Amino acid sequence: MTQKDLINAMAEKSGLTKRDAGLFLTAFKDVVTDALANETDVVMTGFCSLKNVTKAARTCMNFQTGESIEVPEGRRVQFKASQVLKKALN
To answer: Most buried among 2, 18, 21, 28, by the most CB within 10 A?
Structure first.
């Protein structure tokens, strides 16, 4: 599903115009991005949780050259589906 498909589906399901659904989706993405950038976890009960995780620095290997590569520490987002979402998928 593309962003355009998502906006169309949201507009149809909610009764909003496509423009309003697009504005809502943009605002939602901005709020979630800002929260995660500020190291705040996002929990949407009944859907999912998004959590900041720090991945430790590590040494990896470039398999084409056999050379070792140092990968620096970095932040990642961990997605965890709720039980409600898991049941809906199974």
So the answer is: 21
